[in-house]
Amino acid sequence: MSAIMKAWRRGLLGAVLLGGAVAVAEPPPTNSAQGTQLHGSERFESINIPLASLEVPPFLAGAKCASPAKAVQVYGRLMVAQLSCTSLPPPYSGLTGYFLDGPTLVGASFRAPFEGRSVKLVIEEARCHAGITSSPVACTSENLSSGVARWEFRVSATTDDKTPTVPLCPAGSGFALAVPHPWSTGGELLNNPDYFTFACAPSNQGTASNPFFVGGGVIAKCIDWGYAPWGGPSSPDAVARDSHELCTRMARADYCGEGKSNTLDGTPLSFMGPQSALALSTNGYPVATVEQGQYALEAVWKRDSCGTVRPLCLGKKRWDSLSLEATCLNRALEAGTPPVIATGPSIRPCEDLKLTNYADDTLLVSYSLFIDRALVMFKKTDTEFVTTTSVVADLQEHPGIEDVSTFRADLNGDGLADTPSLVPLRAEGPILSAKLPSAIKKRMGSFIKPLYRCVDHVGRRLLTDSNTCAPATGFFLNAVSSDQGIEGYVYSAVDADSTGQRRPLKLWKHPTLGFYATSTQAPSSAFVFVKDLGFLPAVGQLPGRDL
């Protein structure tokens, strides 16, 4: 890791939303909705849909036609055509065929292989898609034909085991784009025009001027960003597919090109193509920061000659204190570590990568925030525990926070380990930084709440969600450098009906000695539960539960 990156890691933990100099097919300032899933359909992430499995809407089932109706995908547009028919019902009476598109597809269904059986997918509603990067465009014939507008569909799913019908897209907008070609379980876009997928779209739970996109998958988001998996007059289909997969790998922080996400939904992100990156550069190398110096250079993503998408370099992780799901990365994200040619990217500083050597390649340059801190519990005695983000650690040994053996408390924030009487006991998880940018806090609104730092007159510490330190009597707010005593931010709620949730953070008390502890689990059997404080993020979340 370069010296400038080390300096940011120590002191730069805030940023603003996307913006700056970007080019066509790159994100505007209003969006940062990357995510963890390709499709955003949760249970049905793995399904690929045969076009040949089409069942026409029930009112057309009795038509007498020379051959079965055929579903096709043309530049991301799902259509059904039929010729040589008699006895067609209204509104096709007297015609010899029909054409279904958008709202006239309501009632049509498809079947896809799913977990050793099949799932029936029924189009329940169609509407014009409103992308996350622009104002809605009317779905006129001209706009649809030119690709400026596209339909999106609300789809229901029913499996063969007779389980209740459920929405295909349970989070986000509830609607999905119909997208050509299937995907492998490892996140590879496969060239097979006989299949398509439904890609769930996010919803804006903010406002037009202050958007906050929730749910959905990165397939739909990358299409909205301008990286659709189909070509046009000046872009062959193969090039478009390569660019689309590159976008989805980058959006999920899939560092090893293996279908494993290393981020959380909606994490702020800025990215651009090689020409835009070179336009910002003065020497042919990527600039170290964008957005007034607050987004740090994360990675340069490239599709290699074998078709694998991985970073050419990795300057920082998108979440500093999440344990990596990636399998190919050396644990150290430091400069000078030799690259593992067969299994992983070079981890040389990205500032040293000459972009002019890649100007014509399928390439993306990503920038992200230092957004999180590691929350670690330390043990002083059998009854006294300190949970804090004020820690120092050997970063080469700790890309995540599962192993706490070399974490040391740094309660005075001078960068040096405190007295060895505090022994690291357990990593509680990541916590959103106390320096979370005001724009992001505004976007998240009631989704998050502050966790306050409290002490008593003998120096005992606790974290709680009250700025009066309630319900701990004898404790008072411990503010440092006008930080209002905020240790960081936690999520305020979860969906109790869903699985794969965030980890709850709780306040505990020793009933006889009066010691408090903040932890995801009781520090010992002597402590009793006091209250829930909030929730910590973890890899593997359901969509729409994070930033």
From TrEMBL:
Endpoints of the signal sequence: 1-25
Location of the ADYC domain: 105-319
Pfam families membership: ADYC
InterPro entries assigned: ADYC
Record key words, sorted: Signal
Protein name (record): ADYC domain-containing protein
Organism the protein comes from: Corallococcus praedator
